[in-house]
Amino acid sequence: MADVALLDVDERVAVLTLNRPEARNALNTELVRTLRTLVAEVERRDDVDVLVLTGADPAFCAGLDLKELGRDGGVLKRGALDDDPAPGAADGRGRGRWTTLPTTKPIIGAVNGVAVTGGLELALNCDFLVASERARFADTHARVGVHPLWGLTVLLPQAVGMRRAREMSATGNFVDAEQALAWGLVNHVVPHDELLPRARRLAADIVSSDQRAVRAILGTYEEASRVPGGEAWELELRRAAQFQSGGVDPAEIERRRRAVVDRGRSQV
């Protein structure tokens, strides 16, 4: 039997591929457990700075495996995923206990096809998304008769705004890649064959940054999203002080400053 998820590491970038194409990469208990294990491995590995999450064509993820769900409750049955997190798992930057992507490292979602319901939640738990022209997004929880539990009611409004999120959840209607781009759900839409190359280039850009700073800043974004605006300003000051207390190397800052200038000239 083929592995339900595949992990490939190259040049400090891990690509994790959901690999149940015959089931449109639907999330059964085995796949969710495997995802947790592989993401925990990525968190532990010193040779990985960035994770790219994608699916085996033709889908990104069709959500919970409804066949398993209808048979025995699948991942929703009591106790199905109540075991301790995989060894080495982080806290998902403070997100809910059921978060399937518990890592402090940046996650780029490379959405190659449909991302539906639990698959949409999986995508939303990434730091940002690159979409194939074939990508489509929908929240069909209400149509199936289940409730989100991986953060959709928090993360979808953050991405597209409360009114659009309510529309998506209440109607179950699909949003295509270009509409998702216009709404702010995804950062980029690219030709299908360019999806992983674009995601890898963005990952390489992240790798070239200071990793301690990347993780600290993304952690501050996450914490700030869960407090009122005034508290978020104070939070940033506290986190900056904590970060600076770890020591600053003026020579390294100068080296990086020169690199930023050179890079900016090449990108303009």
Walk me through what this model shows.
The protein is of the alpha/beta class and 268 residues long. It folds into two domains: 5-207, 2-enoyl-CoA Hydratase, Chain A, domain 1; 227-267. Helix content is 45%, strand content 15%.
Order of helices and strands: EEHEHEEHEEHHHEHEHHHH
Strand content: 5-15%
Q: What's the total count of β strands?
A: 9
Could you say how many structural domains there are in total?
Answer: 2
Rg from Cα: 19 Å
CATH architectural category of the largest domain: Alpha-Beta Complex
By DSSP (H or I, 4+ residues per run), the number of helices equals 11
**What top-tier CATH class of the largest domain fits best?**
Alpha Beta
Q: Could you give the distance between the termini?
A: 49 Å
Predict the CATH topology of the largest domain: 2-enoyl-CoA Hydratase, Chain A, domain 1
Please, what is the CATH homologous superfamily of the largest domain?
Answer: 2-enoyl-CoA Hydratase, Chain A, domain 1
Major sheet size, sense and barrel closure: 6 strands, mixed
Overall body shape: globular
Question: How confident is the prediction overall: mean pLDDT?
Answer: 90
Major β-sheet strand ordering: 1-2-3-4-6-9
Class per helix and strand makeup? alpha/beta
Helix percentage:
40-55%
Low-confidence parts, pLDDT < 50 over ≥5 residues? none
